[in-house]
Specification:
alpha/beta, Rossmann fold, two-stranded antiparallel sheet
């Protein structure tokens, strides 16, 4: 699949579901103590390394960006979907949100303290993940923190509808954390932790913490 194909499919799909997605997930973190704890650890690591701007890449309607802001981080959001950014700006007018692609971030080299990709790599094909991680490294300052959240496991499936029954056309990729860690190490990061979260029998999320090596 060409880069342009999956990017366009992702953009169009999330434009369609933006409003219903925001409504369905707006308060989801309130019932997710493990996820709040993981984000809290991320915030602690960012502060321990001096703080600074935090890019929430694939921010959707901005709920995680807003949560990070609420726990004291200088967070801003970037998303491929213009409709998602419109929703985010409407719901959180005091925060910064921009339309952009993780394959080519409109950020200066070494300009951010941390990058969060909270279940936003799940539509990126395996062959394009290394380039995305290289882009994360480019915009991170040395020692900067990266946290990747994604669906754990193996295999991919085509998602044709979601979030209220709206049509979608995106592949959802599952990956074991050790594979993602290898990609990070190859891209110039040092992996610090891998975590698995099993909220129910049919769901398994993975989280990998890493920091950008100086060279």
């Amino acid at each position: 699949m060409a880069v342009g194909d999956w990017l366009e499919d992702t953009r169009v799909s999330y434009d369609r579901v933006a409003v219903s997605y925001a409504e369905m997930l707006r308060d989801a973190l309130a019932g997710e103590p493990f996820q709040r704890g993981i984000l809290g650890l991320f915030a602690e690591l960012v502060r321990a390394r001096g703080g600074g701007p935090v890019a929430d890449v694939g921010c959707g309607p901005g709920r995680i960006t807003a949560y990070l802001d609420g726990i004291g981080l200088e967070a801003f959001g970037i998303d491929l979907s213009p409709a998602m950014i419109e929703v985010a700006r409407g719901e959180y007018p005091g925060l910064r949100f921009e339309v952009g692609s993780m394959t080519g971030l409109a950020l200066e080299k070494r300009s951010v303290a941390a990058v969060l990709a909270w279940f936003s790599l799940i539509h990126v094909p395996d062959e394009d993940v290394p380039a995305v991680l290289a882009e994360f490294r480019r915009v991170l300052r040395p020692g900067g923190v990266v946290l990747l959240g994604f669906h754990a496991g193996e295999g991919s499936r085509l998602k044709t509808e979601g979030y209220g029954g709206h049509p979608m056309n995106v592949h959802v990729h599952r990956r074991p954390p050790e594979r993602v860690s290898k990609w990070l190490e190859a891209a110039g990061f040092t992996v610090e932790a891998e975590m698995l979260h099993r909220p129910d029998a049919n769901t398994e999320g993975a989280f990998v913490f890493a920091h950008r090596r100086p060279s």
